[in-house]
Every structure is written in C-alpha cells, then in structure tokens.
Amino acid sequence: MQFPITVIDQLDEAQLRKWHDFYGVTADRPRFEEEGIWRRTQQEETAANSGWSGEGDARRRIVHYWHQYGLVDTTAAPALAMTQMYLYHSVAAPLAEIEVAWEENHAMLAEGGWKKVGPGRFELGDLRVHMIRVEEHPEDLRAGRWLPADYEVIDTTFTSVNTFPPRAIRRRPWEVLTHGVRVKDTPGQPVYADDLAQLTDFLPFQVEVGCGVSYEAGIPPLHRLHEMYHVNEIEDEQLRKGFTFVLAPGRDPLLAEMFLDTEDKVAELSDMYRACFDAEVTPALRTLRRMEEAGHMVGPFITNNFDALGARAGFEEQFMRRYDQRIPPVTFHPEAKALVVLGLHADRRWVAKRARAAGLKVFLVDPEGFPRPDGTWFEYPLEAPQTGDVVVRQTAAVAISELEQLLNPNATSA
Q: Who is most buried in 231, 367, 408, 411, counting CB within 10 A?
C-alpha cells in the first residue's frame, strides 16, 4: 500500500493544461481537494430511514473523507495521483453492539495484514489507522449532546503517510451534526410545462446547476458516492441505490473493505475524481455559454458541482456546495428576471428560495427520474417545487437545445 496512488498515468499536454488551468493550486478554488461528509442519525425525524422506534434508539454513523490530488513525476509524462488520503468513520451504538464491532474490527485488521505499532494504531505500508473506543465522545461533550447511558462510540481514522488535516477540517462533520437533520420542504402547486417556452418572457435568466448536468457528461450520480462509502443500504440492485441508513456497527461494510481489501478500496476512492477530470464540457453547457454571449443569460454560473465543467465552459462559477447547510451569499445579476435550475434535487434548494424572495421566476428542469440498466424507469420526483414555479420534465440537454431554437431559430448545435 504505497502513496501516492496513480489516478491517471502519463497525462498528455491537454490534460496538463486542464490541470494547471482549473484544478491546480492556482485555480479559483481548491479543486485539488475532494471532500464529502455524511452523518446518519437514528431519531424520530429520520424514523423511515433509520428504524427509530423510541428514545432508546440513538445509533449514529459519521463518514468524512478529505483527499488531495496532484501531479507526480514518472519516467515519461507526469501522472495525476491521490497524494494524500484522510477517511474518518465514527459509530455510536449500544454497548453490546460496540463490543462485537470492536472485536470484529481487530479481527479484520489482523486478517488484512495490518501491523500494530501502538495502542489503537496500525500500519499497512503508507497507510495508517487509529481506532479508539470511548464511553463519551469529546465532541458530544463539547456540544452538550448526550447518548443513552448504555451507548459507546468507536472512532476509526485512516490517513496516508505524512497527512495531517487541520483541526478545522477534522471538526467539520461534528459542526454539520450540530445543525440537525435536514427538514424536507412542503411542495406547492407548480405549473408543469413541456418546454422552457415561458422562459422567453423572463429574459435574461440566470442558472443554477446540479449533478444532472454532470451526469449528462458521463460523471456518475451522487448515489455512486453513497455506494462507495456505504452510506445507505443498497435496495435497488440495478442502480446500486437505497435510502435506508447503514447504522449497525458490526462488520461495517466500509471498514471491512478498508481493512481487508485495502489497495483495491483506496484505488476505488479516486473513481469520482477521475471521472470529473476526464469529463468533457457538454453541448448543453456550450449552448448556455452562447446564450450568455448573446445576452439571454447572465452570470455568475451558480453550481453545486465540484467537476469544474462550468469553469471549463467559460463561466464565472459561484460554488454553493457547503456542509453546514448554510450557503454563501448568492449573487443574482441585477438584470436577471428568472432562475433556471438544472438537474438539482432535495437538499440543494436554498438558492431557489432566495431567488423567489428576490422576485425571480423559478424554472426547474429535471426529468424526475432516470432509466435503470434494464430500461425500466426509476421515479425520482423533485422534493418541493413551489407555487409559481414552472417544472419542465426534460434533461438539461433537451431543454436547453430546444430553448436555443426558440431564442434563435437559425442556431445550429455545436
């Protein structure tokens, strides 16, 4: 298990330019970092997903990753590599379950060939793991948060050699936890339309994009990360997707893969970053860029995606993906009359709320589902479109192409 881990070997000149222009240390934001946080808690508000049935149910599972990427020299051209890896896993459960998990974790460490180098500390090549067990977690004490009396916590932290995340990074999942569970919005009575024809009465418009735009570029959907880090149980085998929380600490699937199939699992953890880097700017994004140049669309380009496709298409990006559920100030262009939300679901809805408050008309473009590999349709409705919104059940590619034809009948796709 040696670091750095090659992600793409021997980059060509175009790939090197892409890295330096959009991902390296001189980029407008640190795209050389990849980070994700999930906290799954068993409580009344999450009963449908967590199995909560009463006050004695307070299981909790936190997963936080923070990886860094960079260029490394090879005998030929530089390679893109994961240079640092940080993965934090915390689970709280009743003592009997913790006892079993503690023994299983140690058994898997032994089976995986990890070498014990100190109390709770193990090594496998360039990878380190620190595992502790406590009756009261320091972060719970700090927050005045109390687990049931018979509960304990196991923290497991993986770091590559010479990786020391700042304290602010290490505390992020706990800050997220203090904000509580996300409360779903109540849907209103939006208007459903066949296309974006009504948008022609609300020009110029601004856009906010979600992972649907990335999906059209060949980047896996967000639930691929859920599968990779075992956030939810797999309930749809074709899509590898589900909604039931992984909470039981015994033989935790993420830890099992990290302990027993370490090299393969660590290599897999870079799959999403590789897909983002390899993806090409889509026709829909190029069409939007032409609309901006024509004055039909105004910026900045509001994005929840970490793939840099907006920047690579020539937009000034305003990045919204935050883990504290509070978004930064949103810049609405003073001339914008509408916000077009492309391929965005559930918990990324605060920009639209601010747009409505600012008097902008909101258009939501989303097919509200996607096909399974066998051709059947997976329904995935928008959570809470509001009264006054216009919902267009199309992909971004189709909706934006048709809009260009409405705005410029002589346009040809490029």
A: 231
